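Researcher: Hi, I'm a grad student and pretty new to this. My advisor asked me to get structures for two proteins we've been looking at. I'm not sure of the right format, so I'll just paste the first sequence and hope you can take it from there.
Model: That works fine. Here's the first sequence with its structure tokens right after it:
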Amino acid sequence: MSGQSILLVEDEAITALDEKEVVEGLGYVVTGIASSAEEAWEHIEKKCPDLVLMDIVIKGGVDGIELAEQIRQRYDVPVVFVTAYCDQAFVERAKLTEPFGYVIKPFDRRSLASNIEIAIYKHRIDQKLRKSEEHFHTVADSTYDWDYWVDADGILVYTSPSCERITGYDPDAFYRNPQLLEGIVHPDDLSALVAYDNQEECHGVIEPIEFRITTRTGEERWIERVAQRVYGANGISLGLRGTNRNITKSKANEEKLRQSQVRMDHLAHHDQLTGLPNRLLLGARFKLSLEQAKRENHSVGVLFIDLDGFKPVNDNYGHDVGDQVLTQIAARLNGCVRAEDTVARLGGDEFLVVMEKINDGKDAALLASKIQAELAPPVLVGEKQLSLTGSIGICIHPQDGKDMDTLLCNADAAMYLAKQKGPGNYCFYADEYCNGANDRANMHAELQCALNRHEFILSYKPQFDLADGGLVAAEAQICWQHPEKGLLQPTHFLPLADRLGLMSELNDWALRQACVQWMEWQASGLELGQMAVNLAESQVGDTQLASRIGGILQATGCPPEKLELEVSEVFVIRDMEADTCALARLSELGVGIAIERFGKDYCSLKQLGQIPINKLKINPELTRHVLDSPADQKIVGAIIALANSLHFKVIAEEIEDEEQKMFLASIGCAQVQGMPMTAEDFSTNLGSK
């Protein structure tokens, strides 16, 4: 211990010399010998020693005990009493100064040496402990979270200053009132919190618990507590150490997210305009209805409703008026059915009613008559009185079909038969079963012949970059040049072709023709980034589709990256796991994948982030009135922001108006798609762009 210094405070010279001999014999340095408090202070202030050997009775008006207390308060110097007084009164006074030893005169030299060694060693340990505690308090006091320590008896040992920021109460308030925290915890959460803190057989960090408190100002806050029971080396509990974190903001964000998800779920399952169930929710309810009907052996009625005279309303008065008409019609239909029945909007002016637990077709006929009576009064939009009727097709489960697709198809067929009778009629599927079957057979034959006779053609929708107006891509769409009915757009025949199982041939033909056309344009000098082709929902899950597309690319020479495949949004929300795998197989070919008409069926953000797509195409119904509709502007802006955040390209469909282009460009839309044109017109009009 060489180099450490000791001050001797002793008024008897002989005793002082004995102490000096012992001290120096241990290798310490004696800084001085003082016989009074005044002399002792002179030595201490010149050079503060590492230890003081203190006699109790010394010269002057201040005894050794008083001097020791003064040293303790002003200096971090340990004191060992060396005194002839051992009566209890002196000992009790000396104890108050927290001495590091008490040696009785006449002392044994070995005893004094031991006391000196132990005192200096203990003081060194105390210094390390204080530094450690200071470090702990510095860290704990500066943390944003509220740290605390409760001993094994439940007494609060430490609480960090952050408790005041979180609760409004300072640490002293918690020290003075051990029940304060329990008093500000929400009554509904208190029992769970008490049980949490009283877990005895828990080693390591205890799973977090969340609870509410009321702050000093009356504000309710959410707290997350993470605690750990601390054990000594002997396995005995030393108490509970933990952290309280203010999670009020995150809980508020969670609630906003939950409400947002509720809204998104509602949008995903309901028609945006009318609030009626959409096809997705209809499918789920339809399935439950058929399962219940099978278990309980009863019938289900299906009514397919198409409005008569709606198209002229849209053409003459515009889509805003048409939308108001559809909203009022939806409300009327809802008023006609029972609580257990379902009214859904299929799209456009088509609605469907699913009747639960009916006895026979008479119940469906009564509802059809009730609906027609409800539709008879004019619809009032402003000062306009608009008269519409409804053509209704009816089919009954199980005799007219045992699954949803069959029942929808048959109700649809019955509805067309009702239209043939004139507006405002209803017709049962069974009434015209043979004629309906023949009609479908004839259409099947016509579609098959159309492939063989090369009656299908492709038209092309150009896609432009909004930054420079340059041509960047084209979308190919299949049309039918019918020998009697003229040019039919895809919506007029593709749904039936899909039902009849012809989509595989049509898709392959369209893909091959589009790739050939891309190669021809490339050879002629028309620079085109990509060629987009729609895929039918029924084809995307085909396990052979990727192989067939790969063969088409190889046969035509079209680079895979120049082909883009478009799928509908409803495909994304149909069967997440299976559909993601199907898209992954296509993506592995190197082709691009886009979602068309996005915003119609509202897939969830989680689903959107999990599928391998490159582009979102905004539903034209959202952009059609975007210049005049603040609501549409917000929706379109949100879709564009979402696409950009996910690093998807975003394109608006059916955009020709320059003002629309300028607005879309201003909110971050990169590209727009125009209206269809023939391959010849495309080459002539756009070959130089």
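Researcher: Oh nice, that was easy. Here's the second one.
Model: And its structure:
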Amino acid sequence: MRLVVLGSRPLLALILTLTFTCLSHLCHGAAPFPQDLEPISTVGSEHTYLYPSFQGNMSDNDTARLGMDFQRMLRINHMLYIAARDHVFAINLSASAERLIPQQDECYNYIKVLVPRNDETLFACGTNAFNPTCRNYKNGFGEPVGGKLPLLGGTGMHACESTKIFTPQALTKTAGLHTDTHLAARYCREGPVGILVFRVTLCVIRTGLAPPGPVVAHRHFHCPMSSLEQDGEEVVGQARCPFESRQSNVGLFAGGDFYSATMTDFLASDAVIYRSLGESSPVLRTVKYDSKWLREPHFLHAIEYGNYVYFFLSEIAVEYTTLGKVVFSRVARVCKNDNGGSPRVLERYWTSFLKARLNCSVPGDSFFYFDVLQSLTNVMQINHRPAVLGVFTTQANSITGSAVCAFYMDDIEKVFNGKFKEQRNSESAWTPVPDEMVPKPRPGSCAGDGPAAGYKSSTNFPDETLTFIKSYPLMDEAVPSVNNRPCFTRTTSRFKLTQIAVDTAAGPYKNYTVLFLGSENGRVLKILASTHPNSTYSTQVLEDIDVYDPSKCNVQGEDRRILGVELDKDHHALFVAFSSCVIRVPLSRCSDYGVCKKSCLSSRDPYCIWLSAGNCATVAPGLKSGFEQYVESGYLQYPDSCHDVLATTRKQNPAVDSAYGQCTK
């Protein structure tokens, strides 16, 4: 046999040709591999540069020099909280107001935990120069967290009355300003501002009841500051907050207890799922240094649902060690009433910890997997069933590809009630545990419920049950995605999708689902998702939006990766976060279609309607009639097109590009 050495370019071309040939024939005798969908319209930077942006406290030298260093966003009612380096920012979505909360630490402090503890308290943790620390903060305005926030202050930038409360209208009247005027107010408070106190700025950047629209870019505000007092003592952040900003973490309060998943040391050698801060519940954690429980995990999301808290993560798969380091996505589960094991087995450890693989793949004779979870939603209704949706990507050393998969919560429960997986020895394959080897009560059950209904506490479980769950926390079957296929795939772009936000009630009748997908290259894909059984339409890319603005976000060079997206449907906005800025993007651009009926209706945008007055407009809340809209098929009655602002960028997409376009059975 003769060995033929090919040049690098011909070899690469051959590999790519063979790869995509294989992909297109994955489903022999079935539907072809889904092609990438083309967007109906493309929104370029010449439009998006006008969108309002937030870059942090630019008067702070470190922020001006290094950028905001975004960490996470949290939306509670009409308040949007943004955690960054040394600062937490709050934006009043109802009044388009901003409250700036910089922390007065000398060392860099990345705010990695920001969650509501109750109706009046926020719980925040920071890396604190590799010494994680947490604090509770009461709402300094006497209102529930995220509740209606009055504007506090005096006339313009000068007066300060600490006891007087101004509504937006009263403040406008006092200052002699109109409701559409940019203005600023402050709330003054006696007392020093020390290292343990956050400082607050309240900047009103927009008022009035009109629908939000483009705001003049590059507007700067200089606002006075006041203090927001800490509630109680500082709390040690270890096992609740990572030691440095690159370590992943999630956290939430459920039933008064704080559930966290992170690293407990600087070297990230001890990953943990941890419960603490409860008044009556014992502190519990996962077994230390046991790869069967956690192996180099990257934590993405946590959800309270029913009797459990679920953790969504990706990790190195222990069941595929012969293939090297292969990343799998998982869902893990613990019981909220878990009290740990007996003094003999699993004392101070979870007795209910189980985990299972999430299967996001294109079906066929050879499945094509999207193994790496990037982002996940909270529980929402898909086809009247509770479900979560997530963005998944291919392995780091594989062909670049992304997909959106949905998972029903009851399908997750079915897997957790199924067979366990075991490896008899280090040389054998992983196989299901025979039913006769599973002790009773069933391992992973919650005390007082189901198979363990006869046990008041997990501390009373038999040693056999505790020993089993310590050795076999992995379930045999993977959780299937809705309809056993992705809702949306993208495999020809070299940029992966990274974030997801979902509106399951779009349109005047609230019967359409729209996905907003952030990517590595600073673009947001707006997707009309087919989520109904026997749907008469398929999934369609409505818009490809270039959100990244170098003039606002290039503080430390170009970093186009979208790190977070947060939907504010009440104010028709999507907040898109980059490392150094957050940009507010309207959910639609209906007014750009103007008086061109064809362009308006051909957009298939659930947020856009054609009014009898002869113009394209955004759907108003409660509007049920007196308009035209063609979401499912587009508007094809008139062959002529208008010379509207988007005509040169719109691309029509053939129906054949919609294989695997449905989410549901």
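Researcher: Is there anything I should tell my advisor about the second?
Model: You could mention this: The radius of gyration is 26 Å.
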